Amino acid sequence: MSHATFGAPDLTTFCNLDSLGLVVVGQRVDVGRAVLERHVVDGDDSCRSCGGRGRPLGTVSHALAHEPFGGRHTTLLVRVWRYQCRQCWRVWREDTAAAADARAKVSRGGLA
Q: Which of 24, 33, 37, 99 is the most exposed place for a label (fewest CB within 10 A)?
């Protein structure tokens, strides 16, 4: 390979998370497992009922099993923003349907 081209290291692409709509923001690697912290790429703070803008209420975390890398169990720690509409007071969370089904314990990448 006389003309090899290298890019910057990117855990999101390496772990096949770009297709799940997630981006890696942190990692913790232990002897037997790796935990990757991630956020939803395209967060939406628009109310689905009235179209008003939501105000952030904080985040909740979901742990999803993912495909193993390097002989280690891999866990995705997904931080999801919660919002409350300023007009109709409805509360919702960011959409994570691309990463996993509702109430799932395994990511779509782990199922594949």
A: 33
